[in-house]
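Long-time lurker, finally posting.

We've been working with Carbohydrate kinase (Marispirochaeta aestuarii) and I want a structural starting point before designing mutants. I don't trust myself to interpret raw outputs, so I'm hoping someone here can both generate the C-alpha cells and explain anything notable. Sequence follows.
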Amino acid sequence: MQTICALDVGTSSIRGTLYTLNGKELVSESHGYSPNFYKDGRVRQSTEDWDRGIRHVLSACGEYAVSNNAEVLAIAVTSQRASVVPVDRAGKALDEVFMWQDKTTSRQCDLIRKEVSAEDVYRITGLRIDPYFSAPKILWYRDNKPDVYAAAHKFLGVQDYVAFVLTGRFVSDYSQACRTMLLDVSNREWSRRMLDASFVDRDRLPELTSPGTIIGNLSSGLAKETSFPGKTPVILAGGDQQVAALGMGVLEAGSVEANTGTGSFLITPVPEPLFHPESRTLCSIAAIPGQWVVEAGVLTTGILYSWFAGEFGETGRQNEQADILKVNQLVRESPPGAHGVIVLPHFKGSAAPFWNPLAKGTIFNLTLANSKADIARALLESLVLEMGAGLKRMREIIPAELTEICVAGGLTRFELFNQMQADIFETTVRIPPSSEASSRGALISALVSLGVEESYQKAFDSVRDGEDRYIHPNSSRFDIYRKAALLREALYNALNTGDVYAAAEDFSKEASEVKEGGKC
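Top reply, 14 upvotes:
Generated this for you. Predicted structure of Carbohydrate kinase:
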C-alpha cells in the first residue's frame, strides 16, 4: 500500500495525516499548542512547540506505516503564513517566533512607508503595508533587538523553518514568500526595492522555489526517530490558504474558498496578478504553479468565537466543547439581525476590507432589552459580515462571475454558521465532506509533484471522499443583513475618522499598567 503524509502546521496545532493515494485517511494525529498573547499587542510562540509537534505527529504516521507495511512516498508540508523566526547557521531559533497576529510593528510600517509609497508597495508585492506581514517584523528586530538581528543567519517563515528541520535546507516557496512583503508578486523574485526599504539583505532570506517542489529528503536522524523510511522526499505544498483551495476544489476562476480557522480567508484563483483600485484585496501566488489568487482575510474569526465561548459559555474554559455548544445554542435563540446588536470583530485589528491595525473590537447598539443570546448571535454574524465585505471587494475586480463559494474549517461544523454564509454572501455555498482542507490540499499537491496524477483537477477528483453538500441562501434575510452591513461600516468609519481608535490604543497602554490598589 502506497501512502503520502500531509504535515499541516497551523496556528493552534500541527497535524500529520497519512493518506492512501485515493485519499483514504489512514491515521491522523495532532499536537496542540497556543501562541502567547500579550497585553501590549505582542503575539509570540516558541519553535519548541513545532519541534515537539513534528516528532509527535510524524511518529504516529511512521509507526502506522511500519505496522501496516505501508510505503510512504513523500511528506507534503503546508503551514500558516507571515510569521517570522530568526535562526543561526545551524537553524537554531534565536528568539521566539514573531507570529502573524502580532500588531507591534506600526512604527516599522511607517518607516517602510517613508521609503516606498503604499501604492507602490501594493503594486510590487500585492500586499498592504501592515504589521501582519513579515517585512516590518524583520525591521523590528533591527530597531529593538539588534543583537538578534546581527546574529541571524536567516529570517524564516513557519514552513521554511519546518523545511529546515526536515531536510536541513533553507528554502521557501513562492506562495509563502509572497506574504513577506518582500517579493515581487508579478515576477516571483525578491524585490530589490522592498529589500532596501526594509533593510533586509537578500542572502538572509531562504532560497526560492515553486510550490509543489521536492526540496530534499527527510534527514536520516529524524527518519530513524519517527520510523519513516530513509530518503523520504519532502515536498513544499505551499501556504495553508492556497493549499486549502486545492483541497476544496477551488481550482479555477469563478470559484471561491471561504476557509475559517483561527482567522478566515477568502481566495479565488486568477490567471494573472489582479489589484484592487483602492488596495482593499490582496494578490498572492497560488499553490498551483503559474497561477495567482485574489484574497481577502479576516484576522479573528474562529479564535474570537472560541474566546467568547470560553468567557461566556457553560464551564468557563474548563470544557471547550461544552462552552462552544452552549454558545451555539445561544446563537440559535436570537433571530437574524440579533435584535439590533452590531459587533465589529476587530479584536486584533482589521484586515480586509478596512486594513487598520488600530481597529478595536466593538459591541454596539445594546439596550436593556438585549440578551446574552443577542450578543452571541451578533458576534457570529459579525464574522460573516466581515467576510462578506471582503467578498464584495473581490467581486469588484474579478472578471469571472463568482458562482460558487466553498466553505470549510472548524466553524462549518455549526450548520447555522453555514446558513449565515449563504444568506450574507447571497450565494449558494458548497460544503466538502472533509473539513481538513489544507491537509487534503497538501496530498493533492504531492500527487501531482510525484507524477501520480497529471493535473490538479484529476488529483482532486481522485481523492474525493464523499458527496458535497449545498446550502442555498434564504432571500427573506437579505434585507436585514444588507442593513447590518451598512450600519457596521458606518460605525467603523465614525470610530476611525473620529480618531477614537488612536485614543483607545493610548488608553489601553496606560490602563494595562494599572495595578489594583496602586498607581500608574
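Before you design anything, note these points.
The mean pLDDT is 95.
The radius of gyration is 22 Å.
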